[in-house]
Structure formats: C-alpha cells, structure tokens
Design goal:
6 helices, Tetrahydropterin Synthase, Chain A, about 45% helix, 5 strands, two-stranded antiparallel sheet, about 160 residues, alpha+beta
C-alpha cells in the first residue's frame, strides 16, 4: 500500500492503474514505473488524432532577464486547461525551452533530435524526455495534449 501511495504521489495516476502496473511488475516499484510509462505511451497514441482546441500560454523569464520563452500547450477542453497541474506543466516546459534552446517541437526543421523539444531529456528530470512527460499528462488528464508552438527570445 505504501508503494501505491508513493507512486500515486509521483505520477498522479489512479490507484487502479498503479495497482495493475504493480501486479504486472510483480510488486517491483521500478518495473511498475516502466509499465506505467508504457501505459502512458499507449494512451498518447490512442488520443493523438483528437483535435486540441483549448490550452494555455505560459511564459518563463530567466532570472538574468536576458532569456524568455512563450509557449502554447494545447489540450482538448478548457476544463483541463484551467487545471493548476496543467498550467504547471506548461510553465515547466517553458523553463525547459529557456534552458535547453530547442529549435523545433519534433525535429520538423531537420536539424536533428538533439535540438527537438520532444526528444530532449526533461530539464527537471533527466530520466524522461519532454515527450514522455507529455504522454504522462495525457494519461493523467485523459486528453490529447501537445506543445503547439513556442518562441525563445535571448539577448
């Protein structure tokens, strides 16, 4: 039960999903995390074709005042867009853009995966990519979620 609570605090997923992952992983917490990651990826693939008509625009200005980011994180409904955790995700991704200087969302500019936002290790947790972080949000909120656009300004 403590493991379920711990994973619930980390992921925000339902007890049922976490229990199912733990059962599948034979009670091993690390294996359960991997199973939950696979669940997230599968959920994201199922919802990828859904239209996103709502979202938030988040900004991040570095403490030096010389670098700033505007980022649009889109979702399906304004109900999710108004959620504080969704807004926090948008802010964290904007901070990531500020720190890591991606040039595209998913390598659409052809400059390589190291400059693609979705392929970069997430700045606050290098064990996951930005894409995996978004997939976890799709699983958590139950809606398609994606970065629509961003712009990074630097002096």
């Amino acid at each position: 039960m403590d493991t379920i609570k711990e994973l619930r605090e980390e992921t925000g997923l339902s007890f049922a999903q976490i229990k199912k992952a733990l059962d599948e992983a034979g009670g091993d917490k690390e294996k359960a995390r991997a199973v939950l990651s696979q669940y997230s990826q599968a959920q994201a693939e199922k919802k990828a074709d859904r239209e996103v008509h709502a979202g938030v625009i988040s900004s991040y200005i570095h403490s030096s005042g010389t670098v700033g980011v505007l980022l649009e994180l889109a979702c399906e409904t304004d109900f999710v867009a108004k959620n504080e955790e969704f807004k926090a995700l948008a802010y964290d991704i904007a901070m990531h853009v500020c720190a890591m200087s991606p040039t595209s969302i998913d390598n659409e500019d052809g400059q390589g995966e190291e400059t693609a936002l979705y392929k970069q290790p997430f700045v606050k947790d290098g064990s996951v990519t930005v894409e995996q972080k978004i997939q976890a949000a799709i699983q958590k909120f139950g809606e398609n979620t994606k970065v629509s656009k961003f712009v990074r300004y630097a002096i």
